[in-house]
Amino acid sequence: MKKEQLLEKDEEKQHRCPGESYTISDSICKGRQRVNYPKCKVCLEKVEPVQTQTESRMSMNIFKSYDIRGKYPSEIDEHTTRKIGASIAQFFKEKNQSAKNIVVGRDMRVSSRALANSLIEGICAAGLNVVNIGVVSTEMTYFAVGYYNYDGSVMVTASHNPAEYNGFKICRERAIPVGYETGLDRIAKLTRQYHPPREQQGNVTFSEIFKDYKKHVLKFVRNLRHLRIVIDAGNGMAGKLIPIVCDGLPIEIIPLYFELDGSFPNHEANPLKAENILDLQNKVRETKAHLGVAFDGDADRCIFVDEMGRAISCDTITALIARRMLEQEKGATILYDLRSSWAVPEEIKAAGGIPYRERVGHAYMRATLREKNAVFGGELSGHYYFRDNYCSDSGMIAFLTVLDILSTKRIPFSNVVAPFKRYYSTGETNFEVEDKDAKIDEIAKKFSDGKVNYLDGVTVEYSDWWFNVRKSNTEPLLRLNLEGKTQEIMEKGKKLLIGIIQGKS
Length: 505
Prior knowledge:
Blueprint: E1 14-15, E2 24-25, H1 26-34, H2 53-56, E3 68-71, H3 78-95, E4 101-106, H4 112-125, E5 129-135, H5 138-148, E6 152-156, E7 165-172, H6 184-192, E8 204-206, H7 210-218, E9 227-232, H8 238-246, E10 251-256, H9 278-287, E11 291-295, E12 302-305, E13 311-312, H10 314-328, E14 333-337, H11 343-350, E15 354-358, H12 362-372, E16 376-378, E17 384-386, E18 392-393, H13 395-409, H14 413-417, E19 424-425, E20 429-431, H15 436-446, E21 451-453, E22 458-461, E23 465-471, E24 478-484, H16 487-501
Parallel strand pairs: 4-5, 4-6, 5-8, 9-10, 9-11, 14-15, 14-16
Antiparallel strand pairs: 1-2, 3-7, 6-7, 11-12, 12-13, 16-17, 17-18, 19-24, 20-24, 21-22, 22-23, 23-24
């Protein structure tokens, strides 16, 4: 690992604090002065600090269930980020007194460079070393922690959110995720009560991890054949990853929007929205490709379409990959989120596995995967988790595994997944509801004659249909998923639930 100064230079003026070997941006310099950084006392460039509007109203609402996220610069700016960096370092030291090295990566968003720099400043100021792995996908930070045995990581990204957003995804040693219930609440408290750390500067080193990462993900591939694939990177991190990982593989890639551009000029990097995969679907049909794949902004999720350009639900992909994993490890446990089709646990059982139902969210899925020693897990959101990937999600491994399956089957993708499509689903439907808890209680009472479960929101099952209504972890919404054994049953249930949620029945 080559040691060098790694804070990436912005176009703005650079400064150097007395006695320190690296430069800092003008915004970080001003931020240090605002918090009375010790070196400011002897600095000739010091100006009178002025409190900004952003500082005076820093919102704790940026601390979400699974990550830290907000609009830049109104909710998250460099000054706030430096505080968060110091708070993250303090949290890591509280959890592990021997913690030394924290990985930091960033995506291609316009604000990510500046935020990564200030984050690194905060972590180092609190006494931990930073291993900067540069512009990477989120899953590469998990890999770095697990493969190199680092003490944790922070990824600067807002995933699939629009361009004006940014934030941080955090994990501890062994790539253990940090959610609100497992540390983000503590980091929020430390940030709110922030005091400039005593002078205990950590070091910054640079690490190039793409070569080791490529070797790791290719271990999940057994026997690829030639396939023509349209890949929509959405101007996100897949545009950098795919050419590196797929170089030398016997596949033909037809690229869409591979240019890294955090302004997302072509469409949002959220492939769950139907309008964002239209170009992918059209290109698959136009080029007669075997399949199409769309990645989200930080490339840890992927969505598939078949050779006819038809979207394939993510629970179908979960069932498909689960069968492959169970071929290699009969009797293993497979996780699926509670929004998934009845077909998923049925397929897992048929393949000799043990299905385990879990609530929505990567913090829960990854923790349960580790606890149950499950070999694989999948979510309706397009996150796929692999035990042998440090119990973490990987869009790249899911992508390669599906290619491997198609290489073995040698039939059209639509034929491969057809057996899994035996029920009728609404997909996920969102509703703005003022009192979400009251509405969930109302629904549970109205359907108390069914099999009721409160694992995540409320799930009610009958012999021929089921539904789940849950609160969004990221937006002020109620989310409905419903499935029936026939189209008529599904439509009838959907109409009934929508009427109740909207207060019309």
